[in-house]
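JOB MANIFEST
job_type = single_chain_structure
chain_count = 1
residues = 139
[input]
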Amino acid sequence: MKKTTFLLFLFFALLGVTQLNAASYTLDEQKIDQLFDEAVETSMITTLGDGLTELPAGFPAMAVASGDKDVVVALLLDFFLGGLGIHRFYLGTKTMTGIGYILTCGGIFGIVPLIDFIVLIIDNDDISPYIDNPKFFMW
């Protein structure tokens, strides 16, 4: 009973504090509209010929075709779901390659996805040899 009473007290105390903080804010809609009217639309991405886009300075130097696979997505899929071979499905390999990853306990106990991850980091400027690659070892 003491725990329930304490939790109810804590809940209502937090609810009261949030209501106090929310009541202290006011919106000036005219000021917001004025800021939107004065805003200038910009883009950090420049478009090159042949449908390629280039990232601004400070980002890794790579050009990505708009319809092709993105190396960052492949790296994230490999890092989080590499044992299931999801990054290979994303890159366009055959279904049997992903099944091979699963049947070998995550690509020979995680060694193959680790090597895939390293290879994708090293060759991040051109991953075309790994797209639609039917081999189990993509490198």
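[summary]
The mean pLDDT is 77.
The beta strands are 46-47, 52-54, 63-65.
exit_status = 0
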